[in-house]
Amino acid sequence: MIRINNLVKEYKTKKQTVLGVDNVSVTIEKGEIFGIVGYSGAGKSSLIRCLNLLEKPTSGEIIIDGQDLTKLNSRELRLARQKISMIFQHFHLIKAKTVYENLAFALKAARVPKSEIEPRVTELLEMVGLSDKAQAYPAQLSGGQKQRVGIARALANNPSVLLCDEATSALDPSTTKSILKLLKDINKQLGLTIVLITHEMEVVKEICDRMAVMQDGRIVEEGPVYDLFANPRQPLTKQFIENILQFELPPHLLKSRTGKLIKIQFKGSIAEESVVSEVFQKYKVRGNILHGKIEYIQETPLGIFIMELIGEESEIQAAIRYITAKTQSLEVLDRAA
Ligand SMILES: Nc1ncnc2c1ncn2[C@@H]1O[C@H](COP(=O)(O)OP(=O)(O)OP(=O)(O)O)[C@@H](O)[C@H]1O
């Protein structure tokens, strides 16, 4: 488990002091994938770099498996860091060394006995699906393959925590998916705790269990990913979610509508029930679905529909009450209200 208590990171320049992290407290459970999202300058890098003391916190505690990293001497910190690995947006591989040598180098640095290096490198390459690239140099690899080497190197010391600093930001969408799948697989296989920072909600949606949203050095909202997608409370979280769900109806579509416009969210198993067709059977209303989408937040569905209901006002109201009772989530849209 990782506990961050009242973490502050200030950067002092000649002219001013900049607050990178402003009194953040958060707990990350063992074995979970925790995502931190925020726009540029929100403090994500500062926060994640404080987690392994790449940046020295100005104040606060970083407690990993019961040990406060900020209180360790340099020898103790070196040992503790072996259990906290990191991967980076731009991979940080040694260009003049082959894939094999890059991994062997990390193992040597961790003082792994010589005889164990070759079998361990072979095992790591298998784990990340790169057994055929042992003799390639980084320049001969695609971005996705480079990140696989980065992941293999990060796993070399059997860490308990993996920090991912915008690990997929330099990759195209399909390569991003395959790297995220690999991260999820190793999280499951090895029980590794993963903390990732990203500005892309897709990444969080794809693999994170819980997430935090950062702004101006602070965490403005945190919780299980599904809950934040289904019920974002803070304006910034809403903004991030809207980027994914994109639920604006084009104005010309609204103009021509005469019925009552409603927006319904179907959460979890209710998304698979036939609430809408039941409504048409029970009440004298007709309906047009104007916009609809079911997103899967990992395995759990989140459906959003915009519909126009047409009929007598009393029947429409009864239909609205029925859907509200079933879904706990119905909004009558202003335009037609
Ligand atoms: N070494 C530094 N010296 C001075 N100010 C810094 C330094 N590093 C970060 N900052 C400032 O701290 C704040 C948080 O920056 P940080 O890089 O942590 O944000 P971020 O969310 O990771 O953004 P990005 O995604 O652009 O890296 C910013 O105002 C930034 O200018």
Automatic annotation (TrEMBL):
Pfam families: ABC_tran (PF00005), NIL (PF09383). InterPro entries: AAA+_ATPase, ABC_transporter-like_ATP-bd, ABC_transporter-like_CS, ACT-like_dom_sf, MetN_ABC, MetN_ABC_transporter-like, NIL_domain, P-loop_NTPase. It comes from the Bacteria. Signal peptide: none annotated. One of its GO terms (molecular function) is ATP binding. This is Methionine ABC transporter ATP-binding protein. The lineage of its organism: Bacteria, Bacillati, Bacillota, Bacilli, Bacillales. Keywords: Amino-acid transport, ATP-binding, Cell membrane, Membrane, Nucleotide-binding, Translocase, Transport. The keyword Signal does not apply. The keyword Cell membrane applies. Residues 2-241 form the ABC transporter domain.
